[in-house]
Amino acid sequence: MSYVNPDPEPERTPGLEPGGGVPPGETPPAESSMPEAGPRQPDSTSRGWAKAPLILILVLVLVVAIGFLTYALGLIL
Q1: Dihedral angle over CA of 57, 62, 64, 68, nearest 10
Q2: Shortest CA distance to 33 belongs to which of 15, 7, 1?
Q3: pLDDT digits over 38-59, tens only?
Q4: Would you say 15 and 29 are in contact if contact means Cβ atoms under 8 Å apart?
């Protein structure tokens, strides 16, 4: 990818005084945009399980396990 300088060239920009200043009443030159400009945004998707669903699943597994053990012990006794 080629690099493009985002700053305007003072020699070729109309309306600038020597040294790069803008005279009163003149609109300063606009900034150019670059596709790679700006901070990197972190991935907003969550990673891992939320606490509530994980607890519900663990409680369900525990209830099924206790039910199975109770049924198995009932058959033996």
Answers
A1: 160
A2: 7
A3: 677 776 666 677 888 899 999 9
A4: yes
Residue for token digits 């606009």? 30
Specify burial of residue 11 (Cβ count, 10 A radius: 0-12, 13-18, 19+).
Answer: exposed
Residue pair 31/6 in contact (Cβ under 8 Å)? The answer is yes
Please report, for the chain, the start and end positions of each structural domain, with discontinuous segments joined by +: 49-77
6-15, 52-61, 68-77: the lowest-pLDDT one: 6-15
Measured distance CA(35)–CA(74) in Å, rounded:
70
Residue with tokens 């009163």: 24
CA end-to-end span of the chain: 77
The mean pLDDT value for 22-40 works out to 66
